[in-house]
Each structure stands twice: as C-alpha cells, then as structure tokens.
Input
Amino acid sequence: MFEKVLIANRGEIALRIHRACQEMGIKTVAVHSTADANAMHVKLADEAVCIGPAAAKDSYLNKAAIISAAMMTGADAIHPGYGFLSENADFAEMVEAHGMVFIGPSPKMIRMMGDKVTAKQAAIESGLPVIPGSEGEVKTVDDALMWGEKIGYPVIVKAAAGGGGKGMKVANNPTEMAEAFTLAKQEAKNSFANDVVYIEKYLQTPRHIEIQILADNYGNVVHLGERDCSLQRRHQKVLEETPSPALNAAQRQKIGEIATSAMKKLGYSNVGTIEFLYENGQFYFLEMNTRVQVEHPITEAITGVDIVRDQIRVASGAVLGYKQEDIHFNGYAIECRINAEDPNTFIPWPGKIGQWHVPGGLDVRVDSGMYAGYTVPSCYDSMVAKLIVHGRTRNGVLMRMKRALNEFVIEGIRTTIPLHQKIIENPEFIDGMYNIHWLEKFLEQNTEKSE
Output
C-alpha cells in the first residue's frame, strides 16, 4: 500500500480523497494555489505545497509544479480527482516516468477514451452499442452531407476532443448541415486546439444513463449499477439519481453485463464510468470518463462500496476482492449539486461565506470543503457542496431531500438551493418523467412565469 499520496486537485474532491487516505493510514500532500491557501483540505493534509497563483493554468494545470511537489515531499502516488489533469494522458505518463503511481487507468486507456472517435471505435470493438454515425473523422462539407443522408436527419456534428457541450451543432436538414459543420469545427479548434469532428444521429428525447465500473489489474471487473444524470443545463449535470426511474430490472442487468464485458475485453483497470444515451428502450454509447465522477457518492450510498478507497487499493496493486454477485443494491439515492450561482440567472456568485449550516439526520451526506468565513474564489468551478440523500424508497428520498434542502443554510453568497427545491417538488420529476432536455424547458417556463 502507498505511504504518501499527493492530491492534485482542490475543493470537495480533494477533501474526499484526503479522508479516504486517512482511513487507510496513508499520509497526504495537498497542493494548492494562492487562492486556496485556507482551503479545508489544505488545513487537514499532513503536508501542503503552494504550486502557483490563482489561475488554474499556473497551478492545478501546471504539470511540472505538481510533479516537483510530489518529488519534494516523497509521495509515491498521485490522485488527480476529477477535472484538471485527471484525464490527461501526458500527465499520467509523467507521473509514471518519475517513479510514482498515477491513481487511475493507464495513459493508453486515458488517451483512447479521451478522443471521441477512437473511443467510439473501441466501444464497437468491445461490444458496446453505439449511435449510428460516421466511420471516424468527417473532413469536408460534402462528406458531412453524405453522412447526413446516410444516417438520416436530424444529426449532430461533434468535436472528437469535445466536452461540456462545446463543439456540438445540430443539423435538422441538408440546408443546415454546412453551417453546423463549419461552426462545430471552428468551435472545436478554439476550445480544444483540435478541429476533428464526426457525425452521429441526433436523439431527440434521450436520458443520460451511466454505468459505474471498478476493475483491478488482474482482469476482475464489476459494475456498481447505473446513475441517471439526465437533469442537465447546457450539458452540465445538476442533479443525479440512482437507480434510474426509467429502467426495469432486466434492462439494468443487461446493460451492466454489457459494460463489464466490454471493460474486460479492453483490459481496463481502476474506476471508470461508461455514459450512454437511452431512448425507446435502447442504449447508445456516448463516452467514457476515465476517472472518479462528481456523482460517485450516490453509488456509494446504495452499494456500500467506498469507490475512492478501492480506487486507491487497486492502483497500489491490490486485488479487487469481490465479485459481481457480492454487490447488493439497497434503496435509492439522489445528489443535488449546490453551486455558488444566482438560482435564476446562473451568474457565478463568489464571496465570503457567513453562516454555514449543513443538514444532518439519517442517510444525509454533505460533501464540501466550505466553512463559515471561507471566501469562495471566482477563478474555479462554482460548485460549493454536494447534498446526497439515501433511503429505502424513491418517494422517501424525495421527502428527505426536501427536508435537507430546507435545513441547508449558506449565507453571504447566492446558491442554487432554491432551484433544487423547485425541481424536487415538480410533479413530472416526482413521477420520473424527464429527459436531458427537461430541465432547460423547466427553466424557460419558470422564467416566463417570473416575468
């Protein structure tokens, strides 16, 4: 087992990793920017190293500074968390080249799954169902028109290196294709310095369903069930739940088996999440995230598996230690992402936190690095907390979440708590009748009413 792990991240995930390490008897090193000098994980870690100024490019994305901090403190492994360098194959290779362990999958796997085109090819070869689309890169407008005709409109032009909704344009007919193709390539180039695009059938009312995978270095692979992440605004997840109200037992067993079989064929190790679009009873591979997910706590709630702990264990060379039949699913769980944003305009709202009171009670969990008197910086992601609620029934979880949201007190900044309160009381959400477009339509309707 590792003796010392450097945590190459910030906020709640850095604190989550620190806690897992502490419970395993592993010392931790927190790296931080000047803006995060007073962060909770920095205060609690065994050692802390400032790696640069506030801007992420000069600190949390500074590979050389992070490697230097790890070498200086004698860390034998680096945990990247999510975001920042967590899916950067070059960084993973640097970690290994300096004699340390990157707590995640191999650089080869990160690189493969980080490119949408190669990821789709790997998915096909490993038996995952995919959305009908082009065979690799589409280079010209004429080729785009050919594929649009072959696939059938509407189609979506997507950046191969994309993420967060960038480099994605929908074409409903041949007339719209030329503009969609040109705009997608330009946006891809500006956002990712890579203008490679491909084309897929555009699903109009899908749900976003993902399967959590955990695997060791010896071919042992299990899935930890699915999460429904369909509540999104501008392709950013807002609320997640497990199990999905859209699936029955046979469907979730089938997609779980397909996912684990595919990962065994690929030789995947460590944690990963296979994301699907689900429509009319069919699953279609979307992408794979080769890291721990923001929403991993709801899976931990219904399985009892400590995902971060096992992620560290298997990276150290340990055997997974359990099989699929040992995983038991218990009840329901929902996570609300609480952001420092105006709940109506979504304008970021950084600032100093006044009163801070988190909800408690049975099966209520809050993952956050915030505290009273802490100043939320303006230079990073606006999420300040994750509220996770678990229970035996979905209705019981909704009632518990309502109570927990009412108890949550954050003063000094505006947050999205009021938005979550509206969502969980909406009849359509209560009935589980939503898809990836539902939240944006809900927001439009609420804006119209307020005007």
In short: Residues 174-192 form the longest helix (19 residues). DSSP finds 15 helices and 20 strands in the chain. The chain has three domains: 4-103, 132-201, 207-450. The radius of gyration is 22 Å.
